[in-house]
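User: Can you fold this complex?
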Amino acid sequence: MSASLAPECNEVKERYDTCFLKWYSEKYLRGTAKTDECEPLFREYKACIGKALKERGIDTMLEEARADNAENDKEYLKPSKGS
Amino acid sequence: MVKFYSTEYSYDYGFSAVSLAYFLRYPNPYSRHVASTDTIDRHYDPETHRLTTTRLHVKRSRLPPAVLKLLPRSSLGANEDGSTQSFILEKSVIDVKEGWMETESRNLDWNNVLSVIERHSYKRPALASSGEEMDISNGVSLPKDEERTDVSVSVTLKSRIGEQIRKRRQRWGQQASATSVTGNGEIVPVEDEPVKQSWFSSWSSGAVRSAIESISLQRTEKSQPKAQKGMSVVLARLQKGGLQAVLEGMRNDRELAV
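Assistant: Here's the predicted assembly.
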């Protein structure tokens, strides 16, 4: 599996990724998924990575980028759909 | 002041395999510089069967020497040799019923110098012969699928140097004694600001912007075929040895990168 940017989250990330790949292949792609069965694991992983992003100051960069990009989209990328 | 790059191609694999490979594409032999990939948001809508994912990739990158010549290193957060960490925010939406996936990736860090937005659109062709189920792990297989997926890619490059000058000017008054943290964690006074201002002013007419966009476009033209090759490697591994082969391949690629 790919590594997490935060080594302390690698273990829970691996458990989540494994769950996701199985769910994605067996349920999602077959159109039989009723819920995201890996959500409880994702919440655990997200708590870990959320903390790591905060500690490294990356969370602010993410927020700024999202706000900035929204503004930028309006200005420069009017109706340009990728497809 | 915007440059575009676009291309279209197809993979000889079904949509299921391609969408799965998309999630598993880093690291690969053509992208060993991807140090980490984290899913930071994911939402599945059972009504529409759409899956929305936001991921953060960290890449070790080296700025092109040509860009380093144009801009003060300090403005790019790079080390002396131009090596830097890049953050890429990637959003993807998959609709398995309708058979498409739209992705969008943006660079986050030297965003104030150059914004790069890469969009991919993957489509299951309307009419195609049906292939076999692909066995990807003990007891896990991908559904029967057409053996082709169409891709269209567009990259938008936009230099943001002018905006940076405006922001810097606004900040000037407030930051008379600004300090900056170097790569080693030392705090050093920012003494090059006035120099940079005059430097930027003399160039702000767009020459730098346009040069940076051109250099980045050349880079994109080189990196896009590599991204495509990287996906193909992951797809071949998936077909040959299933998930295990993909994960082993990743492990090897990561070891080779260090």
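DSSP finds three helices and no strands in chain A. Chain A touches chain B through 43 residues (CB under 8 Å).
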